[in-house]
Design goal:
Layout lengths: L7 H6 L1 H27 L3 H12 L7 H7 L4 H13 L3 E6 L2 E9 L1 H10 L4 H8 L3 H20 L15 E2 L7 E3 L4 E3 L16
Antiparallel strand pairs: 1-2, 3-4, 4-5
Length: 203
Amino acid sequence: MNKSPFNLDQQNENTDSRIIAALERISQAFRVLLWNESKELSLSPIQIQVLIFLLHHSDEKRKVTYLADEFNMTKPTISDTIKSLEQKGLISKAYEPHDTRSYIIHLTNEGKAIAGRTAAFSNQIQVPINKLKADDKENLLLSLIGVIDHLNKTGVITIQRMCLSCVHFKPGEGKQPHFCKLLNKNLENSELRIDCPEHQLSN
């Protein structure tokens, strides 16, 4: 028997399969929304994703090697994306004095404007999430963090900057709450981060 979660008989008998099918539908919605945005601006979906990433992340993450790992793509593919964005006047390169082959990528004013506008492409997905009760939001967040953590540990997703993989994070035990050693504070489940700027990978 076909155990694929996309087999309808399997889905109808198995809650896990229906969850996977639902996640696939949501990922499809992201692709559609991103594609619609890209067509309007004559940019590819990956170009929009790179612009949004550059807008919200620090210098050490705005390099070709890091971007290739972030988006699970080859360096030549990311380099082509950067070259195209530079030709469109949306980014500029700041070469590092100690290594002229390495450069930090900066958004131009036009690039910042487009990145800020396109970062709202997922607004329609935000609408039903806003309507969830606080407990439901927390449970959904914890479930998704667990899925992402597994995908990271098995090598499907290469880079993660979540609390769970951070050297500063001490998970809660029993009634003891989670604790961030960098912020020196307890963390509620709802405060766990998916993308932390101070993240340092634990050994």
